[in-house]
Amino acid sequence: MRTFSILATCVRTLPAVFFSALAFSGPVAANEVSSAVVRAADFTLLDQQGKAFNLHYHAQRPAVLLMAHASGSDYVTQSLEALNSDELQSQGVAVALINQEPGMDRAKLLAAAVAQGIRSSILQDEAGLVASTLDLRYAGEILLLSPQRWEVVYRGPALNEAGDAIQPALAVALQALIAGNTPEAVTQAMSLAEALPRHEAPANVSYTDVVAPMLLEKCAGCHRPGGIAPWAMTSHAMVQGFSPMIRETVLTRRMPPWHADPAIGEFMHDMSLSVEQKQQLLSWIDAGAQRGTGADPLTQVDAQLTQWSMGEPDYIVTLPEFDIPATGSLDYQFFEVPNTLDRDVWVKAVQIAPGDRQVVHHAIATFGIAPEGMADSSASLFQPQLMTFVPGNDTYIYPEDTGVFIPAGTSFFTQMHYTTYGRETRDQTKIGLYFADEAPAHVLQHYSILNQDLNIPAGAAEHEEGAYYAFQRDAVIYSLFPHAHYRGRSSEFVLRYPDGREELVLSVPNYDFNWQRYFQFEKPIAAPAGTQVIHRTTYDNSTANLSNPDPTVTVRFGEQTWEEMLYGGISFRYAEARENDFEINVEEYFASLGMGMFDKNMDGKVSLDEMPERSRQQLALAFAFMDKDKTGGLEFEEFRQFMIQTNMMGRD
Ligand code: HEC
Q: How crowded is residue 554: how many other Cβ atoms within 10 Å of its Cβ?
């Protein structure tokens, strides 16, 4: 791919807790705790900062301590003090609180954390499903888990009966776990604690009227015969059989595969389940996944999707046939297909139709003139884009008044991500294009944010990298696309407006390489000239990341999945159209891209010490010369000139 040539060359003593039982209005009698839960099920929740916590991620720790949180509860605060959670964390123990108060939201949770002086993660269990699965009933109730088999080794309070020190049984269990032993399980009464406010679980949820329609809408697009999912939701019996697994995938947020933080922004094609839907689905499963009466709506799930859902396309691009083996993983495939149209066209909509839906995990369709050696991901990074296909999202109707202009004499390029499913198969994907009768007012643009200067230390569990793309003209943003490889842990996009205001517009707290997509805003966002679209990704190069190809190496930028990427896609239009908007202004694009990559402190200028160390000496003179206004750094126009003069555009 094109690289910037510069890079190519270049339980101790406890604090006394002053505590008064009078502070509690709730029951002060012995709250017996006995629970059938002896092992903790896996789950994923987001904390007050929007960060994801997945229980099983902590499998290599000596212990995981979970505590039921209640906002405003002094008992919770005193319990945390008695535990000395900072000390515990320094001994490798993962500590997290779980809040399941109905009506809680991110802002309230943050405020509660500040008011209670809590620095640990408070996980928001908005549907109350984790708390009920773990059977947490009292504010401050603790579950101490041994990650080896996820056994509950202690359930009860952090504090002793007098409320002035840590509960001795808990201290013993913690010490044993930290020393690498597995203690006997102990349960203690929550004598001083208040009962938690609880969600009212929906009762008698109907399969016919509630569950099956939900599955049809949110799951069956993939879980159908010939669909990408490994099993089809074709009957009640099928779903009932899979119901324990459905429960698990919902609790861990693996299914439906939608990874945007629900607290940030609203998106089209959002396939996530609402809080109420999750409660209904799990309540139905926990009551035995009963069939009930009425015809089974799932028998409507048909195998045959109409191939072209918007009618016969005006032009079909047929990709070469490709054989997919039964097992193993495949590198991305790149296909070039010549455009046989003898005229220029404006596209208004696209559909990508895989030959075998079960193997096409994503496809990115672009077009352009192929420079030599273009058969790699440059095709999707630096060419005008038609569409990114992901399962469940195969059509793209361009935003109103926008279109993509395809000149005659170009080629179509497609990046294909194939996955195997136990049987050899052959795919031949087709791309259907729908033309506009008249030229639309605006060109739909697809630009990128890139950082080729990654440096992810071996073993680092949370290493952040960033870059930005600054618009040189007023723009309207339609969608954003985060991309990293297997070490990508979380990803976000922040808009920094010219007046300095910052807005988090998309957060993907548990990034998953297997589920890549554009997130399309329900309402397009106006970004005036000078707005920086900041893209940040946190990488996990530790052993806890089970998909990490090698935690022992420093990871740099690269195309291969064992290398890493910081790449963000932006789909937008300029606010005011210009005649040649369909041509990429390469100099402007590359200068803006390069600037967003090198300007580490994101202050709108690139200073010499932000350039890679190995090239600084060589660039010192050029920098001094180019910095015409002597601000100690190159602003956009100076940087653009600098890139041209030093031949950094990396063009062939
Ligand atoms: C966009 C496509 C898609 C949608 C929508 C989808 N699934 Fe899946 N599902 C898959 C794929 C693919 C797999 C195979 C595992 C994987 O790739 O993560 C899968 C696997 C599963 C599994 C098996 C888990 C395992 O460990 O293999 C369950 C259970 C499941 N899905 C439930 C659901 C439910 C319930 C919904 C709707 C609420 C849903 N899925 C929506 C694509 C989808």
A: 12
Query: Distance between CA atoms of 242 and 254, rounded to whole angstroms?
Result: 15
Q: Per-residue pLDDT tens for 197-219?
A: 888 889 999 999 999 999 999 99
Q: How far apart are CA 482 and CA 566, in angstroms?
A: 8
**Which residues fall within 8 angstroms of residue 250, CB to CB, at 6 or more apart?**
129, 273, 278, 281, 282
With a 6 Å cutoff on the Cβ, whether 359 touches ligand 1 is no
Q: Taking a C-beta distance cutoff of 8 angstroms, is the pair 356, 451 a contact?
A: no
In 3D space, the residue among 545, 534, 377, 414 whose CA is nearest the CA of residue 470 turns out to be 534
Structure tokens at 199: 């969600």
Separation of CA 556 from chain center: 21
Cβ distance 566 to 450 under 8 Å?
yes
Distance CA 484, CA 487 (A): 7
- Indicate left, alpha or beta for 249 from its phi (over 0: left) and psi (-120 to 50: alpha): alpha
**Residue at 67: amino acid letter:** M
CA dist., res. 365 & res. 147, Å (int): 44
Structure tokens belonging to residue 593: 């891209």
Contact (CB, 8 A) for 623 and 608: yes
Burial 185-195 (b: 16+ CB within 10 A, else e): ebebbbbbbbe
**18-47, pLDDT tens digit by residue?**
222 223 334 444 677 777 889 999 999 999
Q: What is the pLDDT of residue 456?
A: 98
pLDDT tens digits, one per residue of 129-152: 999 999 999 999 999 999 999 999
> Ligand 1 within 6 A of 157 CB?
no
Burial pattern 488-504, b for ≥16 Cβ within 10 A else e, equals bbbbbbbbbeeeeeeee
Neighbours of 420 (CB within 10 A): 16
Mutate to test the pocket of ligand 1, among 207, 217, 219, 282 (most ligand atoms within 8 A of CB): 219
Q: Is 72 left (phi over 0), alpha (psi -120 to 50) or beta?
A: left
Determine if ligand 1 sits within 6 Å of the CB of residue 66.
no
Residue 336 region by backbone torsions, left for phi larger than 0, else alpha for psi between -120 and 50, else beta? beta
Indicate the Cα dihedral angle 126, 132, 134, 137, nearest 10°: 100
Gyration radius of the chain over CA positions: 27
Backbone angles phi, psi at 236, to 5 degrees: -60, -45
How confident is the model over 301-336, as pLDDT tens digits?
876 566 888 999 999 999 999 999 999 988 889 999
Q: For residue 414, what are its two tokens?
A: 């497609």
> Nearest C-alpha to atom 10 of ligand 1 is from which residue?
229
CA atoms within 13 A on the CB side of 615: 19
d(CA 535, CA 451): 10
Rounded-to-integer distance, Cα 51 and Cα 110, Å: 12
Fill in the amino acid letter for 136. Answer: L
